[in-house]
Amino acid sequence: MFPVDAQPYLPQRPPFVFVDRILECENQCIKTDFVVTAGHELVQEGILLETGVMENIAQSCAACIGWENRAKGVRGGVIGSVNNWELHTRPRVGDTLQTTIRIGAQVFDATIVDAETSCNGQLIAKCNMKVFLV
């Protein structure tokens, strides 16, 4: 079944989409990918901005929630908090990000996750994020 196009499970629409595909999703864990393209909203001088990496993580959370609740429809969300943020390098145009989200807890409309993003086999970012559905 996987990989699948992430767009049906995301509330975001082009040009502000930062997840291309869901690579796998099971047991409160999702893996996604995203190819950095020239002309994207958060690419400057051929490099994805730090906010673009963070948005990729947030949208990977949204894809997980959307996939797990696909029978109910996609809901929007907002980042409530980001903790323990580490960014080791910023990806360039043509790079593929692979993001892994592990859901730690879901309480009402809040989802707390641990996230890691890799590029070319190297960890480039990680954090804990709280996302609220609206």
From the structure above, extract its key features:
134 residues, mainly beta, 14% helix, globular
Question: What this model shows, in words?
Answer:
The structure is a single chain. The chain has 134 residues and is mainly beta. The model has no long low-confidence stretch (mean pLDDT 95). It is 14% helix and 48% strand. The N and C termini lie far apart (29 Å). The longest helix has 19 residues, at 50-68. The strands form two sheets. It has a seven-stranded antiparallel sheet with strand order 1-2-3-7-8-9-6, covered by helices on one side. The radius of gyration is 14 Å and the shape is globular. It has one helix and nine strands.
Q: Name the shape in a single word.
A: globular
Q: State the order of secondary-structure elements, H for helix, E for strand.
A: EEEEEHEEEE
Portion of residues in beta strands equals over 45%
Q: Outline the biggest β-sheet.
A: 7 strands, antiparallel
Low-pLDDT parts are: none
- Total helices: the number is 1
Kindly report the average pLDDT value. 95
**Helix vs. strand class:** mainly beta
Which bin fits the share of residues in helices? 10-25%
